[in-house]
Specification:
heterodimer, A: alpha/beta, Alkaline Phosphatase, subunit A, three-stranded antiparallel β-sheet, 10 helices, 23 strands, B: mainly alpha, two-stranded antiparallel sheet, 5% strand, globular
């Protein structure tokens, strides 16, 4: 069976985008409201309306954060062997079990496990749903990052945020619907991690850069005043108008004219969102802003809250680098401290403002870490390698089941063994929580209806409250 | 399962509550009304069957002809074909198992004679949220298909045996079978297709237009006449000049060419257009523009992507090969053969080795952390699909895990085609430079690269000394970093080593090496971080891969053996003479190249003429140039496509001649403005009759090149090593992580002439895209791009209005104008002519002059400092071993002798004032859009 109507749909949609934009106002991210599903309206009712994705780049160790493995303490520095077809250079040579340098405590009403380094986040566990069953396919950073972010290990496909804004539209016409808060250093694989892939360009993630101009070319070069810019825009408008008069049927020309006005408005709107001056001192302190170790991620978390308040649909904030092959006590210790206070503040702040219920917060890396390690630099290095079979992950707010731990890894944390789910099921679940059905949120490209999960997946019901 | 679900279902099933349900699910009740007409249709269907057969019941026939194939297409993948993974325990392979039901539903799944009440039917109507079957929206059944299931159940759900099914199908089935090498099961092999979807595999059907009529117009006008739509008049000559110049070279027309075309047009439009087109095709910019479009399809890039994003130092020679091929008008069959099998055809010819770079264009890397077998398979998958899309218009990826769902492409063909490449090995081969290759800039490039390496080596030495001095013995059994060192320093050493080896590989950019392949055994590689030299004896070391189908696409799941081959359906339906593909050590790729370029191949010529057509008209005759299968959109003018393909084959497979044929048509010369747009929309709602020409926005590269052309800064030299233009400064210094540290900062070429080259020569790094080009829809180089998309988003306005690089262009444009003309009005006229290809209207001159004057007086008040370009930069990374920030200094040798483009400090207020007018011109819709 072939339905040619469906197949030509994307082209038609792009055309209508121009048309809609011309008649109303062109959006940074188009809403396309009132047009064909899937864009603009959720598939089912849900609590979550927006999502904040805390991307822990580098692969945080589940064993040293939320998934205690006392067995490793017993086997510390005993020899360990691994084999099989997936064996690569990373798992060759002599290897040893490595215990966690950190103590664990039971926190919250249900006694959720959490490493003692999380001195602030431990107060939030009743709002957090820990998931220990997730697995990815790759042990290399860029492929695993692409996999977690886009569903495709090899990159080139749309990121989750692009799918969500494609599915739900944006709530603020003057801001992008999908904002990324990257670290000063971009991840391996670069901007393909927030790509629109084959979706129209308006669904691309817009990085608000940690340094310099938050959005590229938001302002003209030094020496060009706002007045000058306005005058230039007016001349542009006049000349464009003449050109348009002979081409009245061409909505894309009108849309392009509108886009200049929007860009001009953004020049004031964006700095306003970024300006934290309006926040009181208590809030800044709560997020750890102004303190060396927490300032950077604290700003991202506070900004994430401000952005979702302004109607941004999907914010992804990067922290890292969690790639602790060595010296894990120092590296993970510092990293946990740098995100602990900011994340706890974000969860509490959202909750106090009554936003947590409608905001899904999701925490994960691109993979977890191994219970064992090899020899590096002449000694048994106290760190962990990459592990695709188990990872650290939790959900909070947005209709998830706070205070619960779902799934389990084996006694050494090498592999998820209970409630095991491929990352595609995580994707399907994230979409589901936002009211989107992965099987319906499709886009025709290169001969196939593509979807975030690639082949379809399963909602992990246990996570849903 | 949840109880809620049971309740809903029982509500539907319980007849006493039927009315309520119809209220809840109006769609279901709509089906009831619709069913009346279906009954009539069924009666017709059945009575027509009755003429032929009385042996089989109506229900049996319905099952054999409709329901069974529907199950096979939509249900069996999850409910039967893989016995280990039967979803929900519901197996639809037999009547008995279907009657039994599964975990969620029992006998109510299929209640013979009660179609309406059977859940099997209900779920296909998709009225209950979250319980739709099949689950994917894209797979949903049409209303008619749902009703087949209902009617079959109402007829008692008969399930005749295979033999009877075959008898019925042979006698009555609609659609046609497509002969192939055979599917994984008979069901697929015997599948029937709607004949219209097999068009691309059948031989060309060539209709000859009458003498004296332009063949393109003959086909196009017939359809217009049928639709009752008259075409738009011819475009104005200045519109045509822009259309032709951009269409053939990607650059704006020279003002004098516009005038010339206008003059010549008076003596006959066709001839004038042809003359101008020939002139444009003689320029080497033609190859650059057509080459760029080909490079979109093959995903050209100068780096490998993924974790290391290593440079591919010799890839540029392939880019130039493509440009040369179009400029020399290389017959298309040669072009194809060389890219697929150049080395097997003549390894002594450097050109042919360079051409095979095509096979390696996709992203690929092998690090110490990858499993070779997996990365090797990744390439095999990539090249198989890429050859399919590029030359045959068939995305083959869909057949990797299972027989193709819509097209007659069995998974066996996928692995047969892949077997062609199992003896293909990566090799960076010696290939002397050709006389035609541009070797300029080698010295500057080497100087920079060497300076970069030396700077790292110097820093490394210093740091290493410091580390050696400070290092202490670690205490304890396991290293915890108490060695007295800053772990950031240790990481920094690794970073430097990594960048040294990256740049060392880059030094090979200027060496006579081809990014190529050879035929031989597969040698396992642990880590590829430098040139791959071909072994002396390609058959000595390594292994020859066993060619098999991989179950589910899993590299570790070898199953049935296959022999090298190609698309069986094209061979059978295209009536190609059977061809033999060698195995073992034979030249497998050469055999594939022969097969693809065989004039009998039904796909090859069609695919290429359709691409060329799409490059001129902005859409293909067949709507998806990379996909001629059932999921691609059908050709709007199939007879025209076949005529052009045949014409192409008969005219030396010359793309230039094909261009002449297309461009000389009236259809190409039409105005974008139809005198009656409403009528056009109503008579041609899909917009595919060519009543008017479709306007288009310039591509990202055309925008940049046009500004450089207007400003007079464009260095028009053809070919050569990639150039590094000025990028947005913040993106250039943006740290980006690679395996083992942070990649070197992006440094532009030191001289304007090196930087300001055509965009096709700009170094294309997978991990660092030029934000200007990206925002104007330059596709990423990871996936094949059949046609550029155009979207309008605010960041485009930001970059075109605010970016320093665009202000530089505007300033240089202003300076050029002031150099060339003295009179202010003449200056404005010249500006319009260079930027827009036309003269300004009097009031346009006036407002521009006023604008210039006002801006100049503002500029008089301003003082500009000379820009300062630091030769080193402090960068900050998060150190892996501490989780804390670590600062380091990076040396930027490019800025040592860097000469910036014209800067405000070097100009007077009048120039800067005029630059504001120029900036506005670059932002005009008229600048960015072609009529």
């Amino acid at each position: 069976m072939k339905d040619t109507r469906i197949i030509t749909q994307p082209n038609r949609r792009e055309f209508l985008y121009g048309l809609g934009a011309g008649l109303g106002s062109v959006a940074f991210t188009s809403m396309l409201e009132g047009l064909d599903s899937p864009t603009g309206t959720p598939h089912h009712r849900t609590r979550a309306k927006r999502c904040i994705f805390l991307m822990m780049e580098g692969g945080p160790s589940h064993i040293d954060t939320f998934d205690p493995k006392p067995e490793l303490t017993k086997r510390h520095l005993q020899e360990f062997s691994r084999s099989g077809e997936m064996e690569s250079a990373m798992s060759s040579g002599k290897r040893y079990f490595v215990k966690s340098p950190f103590e664990f405590i039971k926190a919250g009403q249900n006694g959720s496990d959490i490493c003692c380094q999380w001195t602030h986040l431990k107060d939030c566990v009743d709002d957090m749903c820990f998931f220990r069953g997730a697995q990815v396919e790759s042990v290399n950073h860029p492929t695993a990052c692409f996999h977690v972010n886009t569903g495709n290990r090899f990159g080139g496909d749309p990121a989750i945020g692009a799918w969500m804004t494609y599915g739900l539209g944006s709530l603020n016409q003057n801001l992008p619907g999908f904002v990324v808060l990257p670290r000063a250093s971009y991840p391996q694989g670069g901007p393909a991690n927030w790509s629109n892939g084959f979706l129209p360009a308006q669904f691309q993630g817009t990085p608000f850069r940690a340094k310099g101009s938050p959005i590229l070319d938001l302002n003209p070069p030094a020496g060009v005043s706002q007045q000058r810019q306005r005058t230039n825009l007016d001349l542009l408008g006049k000349l464009n108008q003449k050109h348009l008069e002979q081409r009245s049927a061409r909505s894309e020309l009108e849309a392009r004219m509108e886009s200049y006005e929007l860009a001009f408005r953004m020049q004031s709107e964006v700095p306003e969102v970024l300006d934290l001056k309006g926040e009181n001192q208590r809030t800044l302190e709560m997020y750890g802003i102004g303190q060396a170790n927490t300032d950077s991620f604290g700003r991202k978390c506070l900004l994430a809250r401000r952005l979702v308040e302004k109607g941004v649909r999907f914010v992804q904030a990067y922290a890292g680098n969690w790639d602790s092959h060595d010296y894990i006590e120092r590296a993970h210790g510092n990293l946990i401290h740098s995100v602990d206070r900011p994340i706890a503040a974000l969860l509490k702040d959202l909750k106090n403002r009554g936003l947590l219920d409608e905001t899904l917060v999701f925490f994960c890396g691109e993979f977890g870490r191994t219970p064992d390690n090899g020899i590096r630099g002449g000694g048994k290095s106290y760190g962990r390698d990459h592990n695709a079979k188990a990872m650290a992950m939790w959900f909070a707010g947005g209709g998830t089941k706070g205070g619960h731990t779902i799934g389990a890894t084996d006694e050494i944390g090498a592999e998820a063994v209970e409630n095991v789910h491929h990352i595609r099921d995580i994707h399907v679940t994230l979409l589901h929580l936002l009211g989107l059905n992965d099987n319906k949120l499709t886009y025709y490209h290169a001969g196939r209806f593509k979807q975030l999960s690639q082949f379809g997946g399963q909602v992990i019901q246990e996570i849903i409250g | 399962m949840t109880t809620g679900r049971q309740t809903i279902i029982s509500a539907i099933v319980n007849p006493s509550r039927h009315i309520t349900i119809q209220k809840i699910f109006p769609a279901l009740s709509a089906l009831h009304f619709a069913s009346l007409s279906v009954v009539f249709r069924m009666m017709f269907f059945i009575s027509s069957l009755a003429l032929f057969s009385a042996e089989h019941s109506e229900g049996e026939r319905l099952f054999a002809l409709k329901v069974k194939p529907l199950f096979a297409e939509k249900c069996i993948a999850c409910h039967g074909s893989d016995p280990e993974k039967v979803k929900g325990g519901f197996n639809m392979l037999s009547r008995a198992s279907t009657l039994k039901g599964g975990e969620s539903y029992g006998e109510d799944v299929l209640i013979p004679r009660k179609g309406e009440e059977s859940i099997l039917f209900q779920l296909t109507t998709r009225v209950i949220e979250d319980y739709e079957m099949p689950p994917k929206e894209a797979d949903k059944l049409s209303q008619q298909q749902s009703l087949w299931i209902r009617d079959w159940i109402n007829a008692g759900a008969p399930w005749p045996d295979e033999a009877s099914i075959t008898v019925i199908q042979n006698q009555f089935a609609e659609g046609v079978k497509a002969p192939t090498s055979g599917g994984l099961d008979d069901e697929w092999t015997n599948r029937r297709y709607s004949p219209e979807h097999l068009w691309s595999y059948r031989p060309l059907t060539v209709k000859s237009p009458p003498e004296g009529v332009h063949p393109v117009d003959w086909f196009i006008d017939q359809k217009l006449k049928t639709a009752g739509l008259s075409p738009a008049p011819e475009a104005r000559s200045r519109e045509l000049a822009r259309r032709l110049s951009y269409g053939l070279t990607g650059l704006p027309p020279e003002p004098k060419s516009v005038q010339q075309l206008s003059r010549n047009q008076k003596n006959g439009s066709t001839q004038a257009v042809l003359e101008y087109a020939r002139q444009l095709m003689q320029s080497n910019h033609y190859g650059e523009h057509f080459g760029r479009q080909w490079l979109d399809v093959v995903r050209y890039a100068d780096s490998a992507g993924f974790a290391n994003d290593y440079s591919r130092p010799n890839a540029w020679r392939y880019r130039d090969y493509v440009i040369r091929a179009f400029n020399e008008d290389k017959p298309y069959d040669h072009f194809v053969r060389e890219q697929i099998a150049g080395d097997e055809i003549d390894a002594a010819d450097p050109e042919k080795l360079i051409a095979t770079g095509f096979l390696r264009m996709g992203p690929w890397e092998q690090t110490g952390m990858s499993v070779f077998k997996i990365t090797r398979q990744q390439w095999l998958d990539d090249v198989t699909d890429s050859v399919g899309q590029t030359f045959l218009g068939q995305p083959l990826q869909c057949a990797k895990c299972h027989d193709h769902k819509f097209d007659p492409i069995p998974t066996r063909d996928y692995y047969r085609m892949m077997a062609v490449f199992s003896t293909t090995q990566f090799a960076d081969r010696d290939a002397p430079f050709l006389e035609t290759e541009n070797r300029e800039g080698f010295n500057t490039s080497q100087e920079w690269t060497k300076a970069k390496i030396q700077a790292y080596q110097r820093q490394h030495k210093e740091l290493q000394n410091q580390v050696n001095q400070n290092r202490q013995q670690e205490t304890g059994d396991a290293k915890v970093g108490d060695n007295g060192l800053d772990p950031g320093d240790e990481a920094s050493l690794a970073r430097m080593n990594k960048n040294i080896s990256r740049h060392q590989w880059e030094l090979e950019k200027v060496l006579p090496i081809a990014f190529s392949v050879h035929t031989g055994k597969t040698i396992e590689r642990n880590n590829v971080s430098s040139r791959i030299r071909p072994p002396k004896d390609p058959w000595a070391k390594g292994y020859i891969k066993k060619d098999t189908i991989l179950t589910g696409g899993n590299v570790f799941a070898e199953s049935e053996p296959v022999a090298p081959g190609a698309l069986s359906v094209a061979a059978f339906l295209g009536k190609m003479k059977p061809s033999k593909f060698p195995e073992s050590r034979g030249k497998r790729r050469k055999a594939l190249a022969d097969w693809i370029t065989n004039p009998q191949n039904p796909l090859t010529a069609r695919v290429m003429v359709n691409r060329v057509w799409s490059w001129h008209f902005g859409r293909g005759i067949a709507g998806n140039p990379n996909n001629f299968g059932a999921t691609g959109s059908l050709p709007s003018h199939p007879a025209l496509l076949d005529f052009l393909a045949d014409w192409f084959l008969k005219h030396d497979r010359s793309v230039k001649k094909l261009n002449e044929l297309i461009l000389s048509s009236s259809a190409y010369r039409r105005s974008t403005r139809h005198p009656s747009p409403e009528r056009m929309v109503s008579k041609d709602p899909k917009g595919q009759l060519y009543a008017a020409f479709t306007p288009r926005r310039l591509t990202a590269e055309e925008l940049r090149d046009s500004m450089l052309s207007a400003s007079g800064e464009l260095n028009r030299r053809v070919g050569g090593i990639p150039c590094r233009p000025d990028l947005n400064q913040e993106v250039a210094i943006q740290p980006r992580q690679i395996m083992g540290g942070t990649a070197s900062v992006y440094e532009p070429d030191p001289l304007p002439s090196l930087r300001n080259r055509r965009s096709v020569y700009a170094e294309k790094l997978r991990g660092l895209r030029d934000p200007f080009l990206e925002t104007f829809n330059q596709p990423g180089p990871d996936k094949s791009c059949e046609l550029r998309a155009t979207s309008t988003v605010a960041p485009q306005a930001l970059t075109l209005f605010n970016a320093a690089e665009i202000h530089d262009r505007a300033l240089a444009f202003a300076a050029r104008l002031l150099r060339e003309k003295k009179n202010p009005e003449a200056i404005i006229r010249r500006a319009f002519s260079l930027a827009l290809g036309r003269s300004p209207l009097p009031d346009e001159v006036d407002i521009c002059l006023t604008h210039w004057k006002d801006a100049t007086s503002e500029e008089k008040e301003k003082l500009y400092a000379k820009p300062d370009f630091p030769t080193e930069i402090q960068r900050t990374v998060m150190a892996e071993k501490t989780g804390q920030p670590y600062d380091f200094i990076e040396i930027m040798p490019a800025y040592k002798n860097y000469i910036p483009d014209l800067q405000p400090a070097q100009t007077n207020a009048r120039t800067r004032g005029l630059a504001q007018v120029c900036l506005v011109l670059f932002n005009l819709n008229e600048f960015a859009y072609l009529d």
